[in-house]
Amino acid sequence: MITKVYDDIYKIDVSLPDNPLKSLNVYVIKGDKKSLVLDTGFNQKECETALFDGLGDLNIDMSNVELFITHLHSDHSGMAHLFQELGAKIYSGEVDGKLINHMASEEHWDRFEGEIKMFDLEKDKVTISEHPGFKYRLTKPVDFTFINEGKAIQIGKYFFEVIDLPGHTPGQVGLYERNHKLFFGGDHVLDRITPNIAYWGGDENILATYLNSLGKVYSLDIDYLFPAHRNIIRDHTRRINELILHHRERLGEILKILKDGESTVRDVASKMEWRIRAKDWDDFPLAQKWFASSEAMSHLEHLYHSGLIQKNLVHGKLYFKLK
Ligand SMILES: [Zn+2]
């Protein structure tokens, strides 16, 4: 389905088969000479058909198209190679662009073996092959034009400033059009669903990074916030306040769970409340066990960095307890 969402700006719904995210909003900005496409969909036949049929229906001149990738997730970057084959310029932030090309290799995914153990997920028989980010990723590197805050892209009458939005991924970027008060934020702020804040390895407090990036967007003057999934947002400060509250509640929930005693990441994730159609932890699809554990971990790290809990690594497995 194609919807005109603003003057010269269109949204193509690219459905994501068998994925709880349902579909990706691909925005297309039509200029007089060139057009800009934001994100692609998974590297999957159904997505390819939906995207390129949509671009055809919009009469986009594919020899004058540019692609902007908001972040590394495969539902956003999976088909970048098809734009490379067209000779298109492909923009991304430097951090995520480098990671996307690294993700194309098999060795990138080796670190997850250690993470499965660290999170105590071995007993769930979680494997990387079940991960949609692995299955439908870009499998060959592309030549990105790195673009970060301080740079801009002009398309027709629109002047888009790049805004760094680290948090949902280490290097997500968005586009802000100050004159028309338009904001394209990838998965930074979503309506109805909360963007997944995952653990990225190392010691970084990624949840704090995310909350900081929320604060940055809060203060922008925005009339239309165009997210990559679900509804267009007209009242971004309301939604950002809800997201901040959600993460505060999550932190409180985890502190309560840790009152039961020392826990692994899996112990915590399996006791948290999740909005998912599964009756209990055993009933969770494997990929969802992974996402839930990674989300629990980013919150545990935040509590650890705040000095509220302790962590111990014993034979490759992490244990958390209250101080
Ligand atoms: Zn994402």
Brief rundown of the structure:
The protein has helices at 45-57, 74-77, 80-85, 94-103, 111-118, 132-135, 206-218, 236-257, 265-271, 286-305; strands at residues 2-6, 9-15, 23-30, 35-38, 65-69, 89-92, 144-146, 152-155, 158-164, 173-177, 182-184, 224-226, 309-314, 317-322. With 323 residues, the chain is α/β, with parallel strands linked by helices.
- Indicate how many domains the architecture comprises: 1
Tally of helical runs: 10
Q: Percentage of helical residues?
A: 25-40%
How is the biggest beta sheet arranged? 7 strands, mixed
- CA(first)-CA(last) distance: 52 Å
**How are the strands ordered across the major sheet?**
1-2-3-4-5-6-7
Note poorly predicted spans.
none
Percent of residues in beta strands: 15-25%
Which ligands are bound? zinc ion
The fourth-level CATH homologous superfamily is Ribonuclease Z/Hydroxyacylglutathione hydrolase-like
Count of extended strands:
14
Helix-and-strand structural type: alpha/beta
Named CATH topology: Metallo-beta-lactamase, Chain A
What is the subunit organization of this protein? single chain
Average pLDDT, rounded to a whole number, is 95
* CATH class annotation: Alpha Beta
User: What is the level-2 CATH architecture name?
Assistant: 4-Layer Sandwich
